[in-house]
Design a protein that fits this description.
The protein is α/β, with parallel strands linked by helices. It is about 40% helix and about 15% strand. The chain has a domain of about 190 residues: 3-Layer(aba) Sandwich (Rossmann fold), CATH 3.40.50. The protein is built from 15 helices and 10 strands. The strands form 2 sheets. The protein has a 6-stranded mixed β-sheet, sandwiched between helices. A 4-stranded parallel β-sheet has the order 5-4-3-6, sandwiched between helices. About 50% of the residues are buried. The mean pLDDT is about 90.
């Protein structure tokens, strides 16, 4: 049915980042362009502005390798999570509810908060009390109801489910709400708009709960079924040493909970809610999971900033750190096309940047003049 209603040539003529323009791909009864009843107080006129930047892809050279980048750092709330939040919010409007909730390490919370503010919905955000201060401030700046949980992300996730069940709030929680997978598959379709059948050979994806990985895989699988692509790119999941449940599961096919701890907060999840789909994504695409240290992530963040002028948060920098680790154990084809996902903006976590930057000494104007004489 999709093949008939959305021919591949027509699809590729669409701009990246405007995935509402191809509604046959999403499990919704309407799109932002459709006239539908909305709950009282919802800003209907703002629906048409739900979109991402069109210039999502570009090439950069770091060291001896040239990379393609999918850059979601300039999305409306500066992370890949906007792809899922926009779809979830549309579903909430379809259900005629104004109360939406999510548990988050920061990005999903700020994403939902920002989009709800634009549309006149109420956002109830649950986060561990250890989230980066910039992310907390961003959530509160949007006017969301912020609930700080004494504990980790997994605890915030569980309490949000219980409260939303009691209150009847619509829950956006990653993986728990299947629309988060659907929203995040849009990245794969944007890749096809950019590359056509000449898709990347390798795609490096920061991985915590595994929902971005699962979403990219779902989009690729659908395109394979449509005949738009001939084979899968190899998906490489990148995890931090202190939050490596998928890496361990791929080795043993057994899940064992350990409390997660990494400064890359956006991929910090001890109990990944999309673990099994993430594992399937790696198995079916011939991919693998790699693990990197926090120090490797910070070094990658520094390289990206100082070689390209792009400031990414630690979780996003994990994609480059993962490439280096992957290359250590595998010979890449000379002309391999490598795509890195930059999933979050570095301004969301300035504490991480301060760990590799020293504040310069302040001098008086006279001292500076003497210094340069």
């Amino acid at each position: 049915m999709i093949r008939d209603t959305l021919p591949v040539k027509s699809f590729r003529s669409l701009p990246p980042g405007k995935f509402w323009l191809y509604p046959p791909l999403w499990p919704l009864a309407f799109s932002p362009q459709t006239e539908v009843p909305v709950p009282e107080g919802v800003k209907r006129e703002q629906l048409k502005y739900l979109s991402l930047p069109s210039d999502l892809f570009f090439q950069i050279k770091i060291g001896d390798h040239c990379f393609w980048i999918l850059d979601d750092t300039r999305n409306p709330t500066f992370s890949y999570k906007d792809r899922a939040s926009e779809l979830v919010v549309l579903k909430a409007i379809q259900r005629e509810t104004r109360e939406i909730t999510v548990a988050s390490t920061g990005n999903a919370g700020s994403s939902l908060a920002g989009i709800c503010a634009r549309l006149g919905l109420n956002a109830n955000i649950w986060v561990p009390d250890s989230i980066p201060e910039n992310k907390r401030l961003q959530i509160q700046a949007y006017g969301a109801h912020l609930h700080l949980v004494q504990g980790d992300y997994d605890m915030a996730f569980d309490v949000s489910l219980e409260v939303s069940g009691q209150k009847g709030w619509y829950n956006r929680n990653t993986a728990y709400n299947p629309l988060t997978i659907e929203g995040k598959k849009s990245g794969a379709y944007d890749m096809f708009i950019q590359f056509g059948r000449e898709m990347p050979d390798y795609i490096f994806i920061p991985c915590g709960d595994g929902v971005i990985l699962g979403g990219i895989y779902k989009g690729l699988r659908e395109m394979l079924q449509l005949g738009w692509i001939e084979h899968y790119p190899q998906l490489v999941a990148v995890q931090a040493v202190g939050s490596d449940a998928l890496v361990r599961y791929m080795d043993t096919h057994h899940f064992e909970y350990t409390r997660a701890q990494t400064m890359a907060d956006s991929i910090c999840a001890g109990a990944p809610r999309n673990l099994f789909m993430a594992a399937k994504a790696l198995e079916e695409t011939g991919g693998r999971a790699v693990v990197v240290s926090d120090m490797e992530i910070l070094e990658a963040q520094k390289q990206i900033a100082q070689k390209t002028g792009i400031l990414v948060e630690p979780a996003a920098a994990a994609s480059l750190a993962g490439f280096y680790r992957f290359r250590e154990s595998r010979i890449l084809e000379k002309n391999a096309k490598v795509l890195l996902l930059f999933t979050g903006n570095g301004l969301k976590d300035m504490n991480a940047i301060e760990s590799w930057i020293n504040r310069p000494e302040a001098k008086s104007p006279e001292d500076w003049l003497r210094y340069y004489q």
